[in-house]
Amino acid sequence: MPIIELQDVSKLYGFGDATTLALDEVSLTIEEGEFVAVMGPSGCGKSTLMNMIGLLDRPTHGLYSLHGKAVARLRAGQRAKIRRDTVGFIFQSFNLLPRLTVLENVALPLAYKGMSIGRRVKLAADMLERVGLRDREFYFPAHLSGGQAQCAAIARALVNHPKIIIADEPTGNLDSASSRLVMELLSEIHKSGNTILFVTHNPELTRYATRVVYMHDGGIVHDESTVLGEVAATAHKSIFSSATMTEEDDFAGVSALMKIAPDAKASKTKTKSDKKGKKPAKAKGRKKGAKS
């Protein structure tokens, strides 16, 4: 049974003439243990899809099943509980609380389970050791590098031992070395059996995925399985290039130029005639040497 199943899911924002179609009848099935990369241009619906899967939002139309259970129409409290116990989020901007230490940030999700302070600290410290930040547990987020901050965010996402990890452009604010560190860490997490979905604009990062989904204008336009360690074949190509110019487009362009050209020519002719017929202005003052 698939861990995630979406059937004809659509998401609309706004009302009337201001309605925006963020997702357009998306159908997607993800098996447990997959490492899925989601690619596409800005504004194509990637983040909306992640929010939908992570139960941060609900579809306007369509069905969503998580572990075989319909979750699209659950109440807010029910969705929050499933989200807490099933999904771990990793954000591009880290979203660490600046006034809490790294250890306190990682332990925070456990507080919502009513766990004792001692138990929370122990689990958070163990998770920080797993991501290589045990020696930074009493630092504040401002004292970490970008890569370290993202590793701390990953530790926080994992501390509840979720089945699904959703990473929305986790390397977007990082340099190449830090990006590699974060992706290697996600790869190790994937080997432990977690299902991972991550959004990226970087084709090179598809090396870590077992599958790549391409989105455009709110829909899925391509879905391919990949080999670990190899860049996805379609990622090499620009499938989101601008539309090819047709003969009608050429005629439309010529027509527009013809409308502009006569006006420009008439304006130019008018300017020349004005200059030709224009007489020099007479001096209002008296000529030099004139008698009073």
The side-by-side strand order for the widest beta sheet comes to: 6-7-8-3-9-10
CATH architecture, by name, is 3-Layer(aba) Sandwich
Unreliable stretches (pLDDT < 50, length at least 5) are 238-245, 283-292
Shape descriptor reads: globular
> Whole-Å distance between the termini?
111 Å
Question: Whole-number radius of gyration?
Answer: 30 Å
Q: Residue share in helices?
A: 25-40%
- What are the secondary-structure elements, in order, as H or E? EEEHEEHEHHHEHEEEH
Number of strands: 10
Beta strand % = 15-25%
> For the residues shown, what is the average pLDDT?
84
Quick one: biggest sheet? 6 strands, mixed
For this structure, the CATH topology is Rossmann fold
CATH superfamily: P-loop containing nucleotide triphosphate hydrolases
Structural class: alpha/beta
Name the descriptors:
292 residues, 6-stranded mixed sheet, 35% helix, alpha/beta, 4-stranded antiparallel sheet, Rossmann fold
Describe the structure.
The protein is 35% helix and 21% strand. The protein is of the alpha/beta class and 292 residues long. It has seven helices and ten strands. Strands 6-7-8-3-9-10 form a six-stranded mixed β-sheet, sandwiched between helices. It has a four-stranded antiparallel β-sheet with strand order 2-1-4-5, covered by helices on one side. The protein has helices at 46-53, 76-86, 102-111, 117-130, 146-158, 176-191, 247-277, and strands at residues 4-13, 20-30, 35-39, 61-66, 69-70, 87-91, 164-168, 195-199, 211-216, 219-225. β1 (4-13) and β2 form a beta hairpin. The longest helix is centred in the C-terminal third of the chain and has 31 residues, at 247-277. The protein has a single domain, classed as P-loop containing nucleotide triphosphate hydrolases (Rossmann fold). It starts with a strand and ends in a 15-residue tail after the last helix.
